[in-house]
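Human: Cast an eye over this sequence-structure pair and say how the chain folds.
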Amino acid sequence: MAAAAAAAAVGGPQPPQPELPAPGLSLDKAATAAHLKAALSRPDNRAGAEELQALLERVLSAERPLTAAADGEEAAAAGGGGGPGAAEEEALEWCKCLLAGGGGYDEFCAAVRAYDPAALCGLVWTANFVAYRCRTCGISPCMSLCAECFHQGDHTGHDFNMFRSQAGGACDCGDSNVMRESGFCKRHQIKSSSNIPCVPKDLLMMSEFVLPRFIFCLIQYLREGYNEPADVPSEKDLNKVLQLLEPQISFLEDLTKMGGAMRSVLTQVLTNQQNYKDLTSGLGENACAKKSHEKYLIALKSSGLTYPEDKLVYGVQEPSAGTSTLAVQGFAGAAGTFGQLDSSDEEDQDGSQGLGKRKRVKLSGSTKDQSIMDVLKHKSFLEELLFWTIKYEFPQKMVTFLLNMLPDQEYKVAFTKTFVQHYAFIMKTLKKSHESDTMSNRIVHISVQLFSNEELARQVTEECQLLDIMVTVLLYMMESCLIKSELQDEENSLHVVVNCGEALLKNNTYWPLVSDFINILSHQSVAKRFLEDHGLLVTWMNFVSFFQGMNLNKRELNEHVEFESQTYYAAFAAELEACAQPMWGLLSHCKVRETQEYTRNVVRYCLEALQDWFDAINFVDEPAPNQVTFHLPLHRYYAMFLSKAVKCQELDLDSVLPDQEMLMKLMIHPLQIQASLAEIHSNMWVRNGLQIKGQAMTYVQSHFCNSMIDPDIYLLQVCASRLDPDYFISSVFERFKVVDLLTMASQHQNTVLDAEHERSMLEGALTFLVILLSLRLHLGMSDDEILRAEMVAQLCMNDRTHSSLLDLIPENPNPKSGIIPGSYSFESVLSAVADFKAPVFEPGGSMQQGMYTPKAEVWDQEFDPVMVILRTVYRRDVQSAMDRYTAFLKQSGKFPGNPWPPYKKRTPLHPSYKGLMRLLHCKTLHIVLFTLLYKILMDHQNLSEHVLCMVLYLIELGLENSAEEESDEEASVCGPERCHDSWFPGSNLVSNMRHFINYVRVRVPETAPEVKRDSLASTSSDSLSSLQNSGTAQVFSLVAERRKKFQEIINRSSSEANQVVRPKTSSKWSAPGSAPQLTTAILEIKESILSLLIKLHHKLSGKQNSYYPPWLDDIEILIQPEIPKYNHGDGITAVERILLKAALQSRMNKRIIEEICRKVTPPVPPKKITAAEKKTLDKEERRQKARERQQKLLAEFASRQKSFMETAMDVDSPENDIPMEITTAEPQVSEAVYDCVICGQSGPSSEDRPTGLVVLLQASSVLGQCRDNIEPKKLPITEEEQIYPWDTCAAVHDVRLSLLQRYFKDSSCLLAVSIGWEGGVYVQTCGHTLHIDCHKSYMESLRNDQVLQGFSVDKGEFTCPLCRQFANSVLPCYPGSNVESNLWQRPSNKSIQDLIKEVEELQGRPGAFPVSISSETNLSKEMESVMKDIKNTTQKKYRDYSKTPGSPDNDFLFMYSVARTNLELELIHRGGNLCSGGASTAGKRSCLNQLFHVLALHMRLYSIDSEYNPWRKLTQLVEEVNSQQGNEEQQPEVPILYHDVTSLLLIQILMMPQPLRKDHFTCIVKVLFTLLYTQALVALSVKCNEEDRSAWKHTGALKKNTCDAEKSYEVLLSFVISELSKGKLYHEEGTQECAMVSPIAWSPESMEKYLQDFCLPFLRITSLLQHHLFGEDLPSCQEEEEFSVLSSCLGLLPTFYQTEHPFISASCLDWPVPAFDIISQWCFEINSFTERHAEQGKALLIQESRWKLPHLLQLPENYNTIFQYYHRKTCSVCTKVPKDPAVCLVCGTFVCLKGLCCKQQSYCECVLHSQNCGAGTGIFLLINASVIIIIRGHRFCLWGSVYLDAHGEEDRDLRRGKPLYICKERYKVLEQQWISHTFDHINKRWGPHYNGL
């Protein structure tokens, strides 16, 4: 261990010292150590001690120059021979020896470990470590466990999750302060201190002497290495020193791991003040020590810290030495100095200098702060070590060492105190740091271990002023980035706010400090101390006020902002973290009556701070126009503490409320925010860019809403309940700028709002009132009711997954608040309101997740549109909720039309807030409602259904909450105090509803229609009355009303306040001169609210007299008013419901309603209404109709698209039928006609203009993954389990080929097998065709297209122009008519012998092809180019098997193998057999026919030499048998019995001229079947044992002369056995042979089954081939009759064959030459081979032909088993633990994703593996993300996860860390896509991987 290493740079080079201690000491170290130990053990050990000190002095001398940043080269030179590290190594060795006292170091370690009282785990980990957190067992929310302790404890059924540590942490197992003991693991359950023996004194005696020197040496190195340069020391230098120190720190770390005994020694050493004083005071004569002490003092001073005793040295006159270090990247911090500014502060930005000064002066009152910020005194090693740890920016090793010591209780306390003592210094270093992120994590890594422990936190709070320190440090930190607030009064504002653009806020640098503060406030004892300390509260409110009004937005009125600042992120984060979270922390301790005092304190200082704020921004009564800030933390503190006081502490609300004037001020800014929200949604702020919308959304977003919009609305509710209702209502409409709209006149002018915004602003204002009056979140709902309401609102908008619900339900941000996500109440409420919809799998579609959907009764009774509106971030969610509600009503038959939002009964109000309902019973509101009803009835512009809906909602709310005391028939006589212009007699809505208003005086533009009508009216007889009434006509002005009330309130609140108030008659309310002149007109109204409602009913229903009071028919209705039929419906229902409620509330109303209905007046101005009716539909309805039309069109379009998709694109499995244009089945006389999907023309494919099929060529190794057993292999999850690939189809075929190539002629070998099991080319098509020239121009256009595509055009990739399926080539269609095929198919009666001859002749004809190759036509060119494509699809290694590279035999083999691959794959897609029959879809969309033409054309270029043609060997007897023996030197040809029959079939077919005749095909099949059958017999004979063989030989021989001997398997078998017995095949029956012999007794049935199974694969492939070549359908059948059905379909079975007696496979034989002759000829070849190689000869005969379907690996049930094994597994290539481990699901190989360590020739490991394992297709499970990634060629995509949690959800990246379980259906879908090669079609999101995966 390179140790003492770091010692540090010393100014100049020094003479090199000898590396080793003086010769005297270089004796054997062990002996010296033993000698010293003995000396020290004596009672008088002074001599020993001195000797040891001297030794240590020399060994650990820090004078040795070290490689340090300052002078690297010289030091290296100086290091001498051993290099710089040698000496340090030596020093460490000495230390180890001395500690062990002469014994072996390892034995010493073991001995110490034996005394470890391990009650705590304390394992320390760093970032990215996987740990667990169990909420059921945790006391502190920060509790965490290492994986080992977690799995050893019992947490079944607990609410736990796995997480990746962000900052690092330590295991809390065994610490009962942090977690419940029930959760401890087995190792830490036992309180083991009792049975651990006492530590023997002499064991650790040496350690006590050696360690102080060692640690001092370390500190000296740290001092030396730290050069305080002019600027901040560079990272590099610090890192260099740290690297050198690595061994020492590691040595200390190892000591801590020795257990409790060693830790207590270390604690003694680190905390002992005497030791520290003796060693470090620097007063000795040692020059080096002096120098190091000086460096230490310099470092202290430069950190802006003083060393108390050195005040004299440095001069008292600088209380804070140098603020330079506070410069946050050039912006000098304002925090460092107090009153006086140091010279170093000059770089302050101009504006903030004075400001900073003022602010600082205000704070510099207490000297306490000064000491907190600037004085540090170190009294022990621990303190100085921590100082350097901070100075070096928390190196990971040091942090781990300091934390590893924590299990020692004494150390824990000392360390915590030291940490607190350095807190201010930590903050300063953090602000300077370039790596503030890393540093923040390291700080929190430490602090969370210290402050989560309540006992410890309390102790430090009491003894070290922890709270004072924290609050002061936070205040200082924020002071460095303050700017002047521009809110309200820009010039004179005295308020300062934080600047959100500053790095401190933007990068969240304050996070560690705030997080610590929140952590300690979660402890009750600490929080109480905070709430009792008035000084602290004042300081804290001061801190909060820095955030009040930050990030001010000013509305852009002219042009768009050029730069959209994103500072709002920082602002919202800062308010949430620095203000709201501490607030929730404090609130959680104010739950009971006894804590009333705390609330009073907070409220008092909060109000003081607010008053200061209003004064500072110079606020009177009008907010400045066009400004909004979303940040009012002081208002929110006040609101939340009020709410808590009333809800939990039974405080009287009025006792904590300020006077009316303050209330009026308090309501202004929150109200301004609500109005601005409406403005933003009305697009009035568009010129401010998108960010303003972002702010509006964040303000209501689930993580922020309960710290922002909820307190704001609550505060407004409180103000509304205490202020004059008329004042409040008029303020609302004025803030929303719609005052001018509220007039009876049909035209008006709005001086502050454009016409296009009026409607949405009016909707906004009314919606706000509805929310204000209906919301009960803080006004009386219990926690569970709130949770339920929140959940219902979220579920109504959309079905939600469990995790998104958890995320969307606002919970108190403070974890200790009680509602823990996932807690019991959450689950129980969820199951009460929602049903779980299990994940479904749409074939070929998106993977669904498990969703929760609202129960029917929730829609019926609990759907609350108000809550939905409050909680929607996007406006479309409200519409979505309404659509879902409509659908529910239609479905359940409750209401067929378009319903209105339902009216929902509210929770009763808490008595303290009863005043809120006065808003509903104030004349101002009634006038507004009356006016709006009238305007809607008269069809004035800018009103919408939404406005009407809200108006009715407010009326209904008023009826529900009417004052009880109103007597039914109250005296209509009013007191004289009513002023003359009052519209309504009283303020109660119930009585005002029936009050008729006759005339209204309005101000209208001269152009308005009312003016004309007025003059007409005066000439009529009516004129008299109208004039009389003009005196009583009502006039109303909201603004005037508000001014008046304001004045009253102010006068009432204090007489002297008059001087303060300067009522701003701000210009914006006076009409601008440009507007047309206003004139006064008097309108005749003669309506009451009731009569307007009834007329509205007529208008809505479109019928006259549509309203008929229901109680006239059924008097019951009045007694039992809750009628379900009124619960859901549209406007008509709402009107009926309201009239019914009005009638219920007062008999008078009931009578008036009846009267109105009797009169049935036509609507007031008949002309006006008819005109409106001519318009027929008002805007809304027109909109509605348009919307419906659009819906209809869309639906129609969707259904069209769907039907197209169904026909054109079979996305998933080959199950859906897709007719293809190519008609192969029906015999037609015409040529095949193709449609080109590009130019749309149809016609035949011709020589010069060929048509082609859109195809996708891909290399595939799926076939090679077939195994011979049904059970899929399991993914290995322990070291023992391994997967060996030797039993796969590919491996077996490989072995076979190489065996043949060893003994036989190469060219012959290449005809005896097929390749393509791995890397075979699979061709698939979507069935669409195009002209090849059209395709070329299409590709050209794609190439020029600049759009980013998911595919590479240069590689020939494109998407089908019609169905967009991925493709990469075009397969030319072979021209020719279908007539031929009909002629060819006629059965001929030629004998088999004749046919055999014809076949041979046809094969011999070179290139006798209708299109001669010599003449280059377009078609032949295309055929060549597609062949090239096919070759290039797979890698060279998968197509070159010949020993002589580039031999034509290779191409020949490759071509017929392509045909084989496609046939075999189709067979697998059909499930491995042909029982289902039918022209399956694969057939209809198959391109095999075209593919065969292309292959045949190319195969015929290589004609086989006629004597090598296997056809000869099959059909003729060769006479000259001996000629073969002659040429020994040449390798023989492959014996025909070793040939693969299916390959022979393809060779024969493809060598024939196309199109092929049916009888030739049948002939070839018959001949080959004889060979196949013989092979089966030979294999059978090899499989059984000697006795069986002789028995069969005998029985068969007896029947040899019967008539159909050639068709009897017994005869043939016995003949085969007798023939082969001549050779050595059966001889070497040694022991090794037994493995092959099957122990079963062979019965005739089992033999027949064996023979059939042997032949079936060939029959299946042949039938498929016949189906494709001749278009014949496949018959369907049972599995057991598959053989007989296929053989008759292929024409092997004679037609007259009877099926009564059991079927015998031999009856299909049709021997072209006498059977026994040809068999003996074939056997002879075998015998001549087995002469020399009997073993191999036997192996080659037994072919495994029954492969099972391929499968992916079987995965374990629980994801954790995979994760625990693989995430720590080392990679076999680079032996490191990969950062992103992945495992291949096809073969189980473990790979590094993106790992540069395993890169080979620029290919990363996953890509490489996908090429080797899947020929370019790889399926990998990413261990750390639980996601599956697909690599296909040069592209990749994330497929999704096959592991879901208990709620049916994926957990990508394991963010939630809940247990995951395999989802079998998803895995099936994945496997299906792999087997059917449809990844490219089904997954849409592909991207290039550039070989980097």
User: Anything to note?
Assistant: DSSP finds 76 helices and 28 strands in the chain.
